[in-house]
């Protein structure tokens, strides 16, 4: 009987951990999905010019700085980390998707890449919901077993 209680207690801990991990993943991915959905629905694809490549300290990555036209006609800057890739050339134009209003939410890539990112985010949110359901089910089953075993 002690072994049954020990196993059920382990299932309560594992289910609770899975439930908490699912909640953490769900909150972050839900916010990212909201941004991706907004970019897909109202995003405008504009050309961004690579103006600088700067090495980061103690890493083999670079910081790429892009300039792109904003909604009010001025130039905005966007920085992102990239790997040491010979395909990045200063002065070349790359696609960037931005919101029609002035905003810091941008996505390096085409509108098709934004759609793919949104689909991925929806899949991540769905997986987090399944993880929470599985954790809740494991906890509920184990608690029921503990109550019946006592």
TrEMBL record:
UniProt keyword annotations, A-Z: Membrane, Transmembrane, Transmembrane helix
Domain of life: Bacteria
Ranges that cross the membrane: 6-27, 128-149
Record has Transmembrane as a keyword: yes
Name this protein carries in UniProt: DUF3592 domain-containing protein
Organism: Streptomyces populi
Taxonomic placement: Bacteria, Bacillati, Actinomycetota, Actinomycetes, Kitasatosporales
């Amino acid at each position: 009987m002690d072994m049954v209680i020990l196993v059920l207690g382990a299932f309560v801990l594992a289910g609770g951990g899975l439930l908490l991990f699912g909640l953490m993943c769900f909150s972050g991915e839900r916010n990212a999905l909201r941004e991706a959905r907004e970019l897909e629905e109202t995003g405008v694809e504009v050309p961004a010019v690579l103006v600088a490549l700067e090495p980061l300290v103690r890493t083999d990555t670079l910081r790429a700085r892009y300039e792109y036209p904003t909604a009010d006609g001025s130039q905005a800057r966007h920085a992102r980390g990239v790997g040491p890739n010979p395909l990045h050339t200063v002065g070349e134009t790359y696609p960037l998707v931005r919101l029609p209003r002035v905003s810091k939410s941008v996505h390096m890539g085409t509108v098709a890449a934004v759609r793919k990112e949104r689909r991925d985010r929806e899949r991540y949110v769905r997986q987090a919901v399944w993880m929470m359901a599985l954790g809740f089910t494991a906890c509920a089953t184990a608690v029921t077993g503990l109550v019946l075993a006592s």
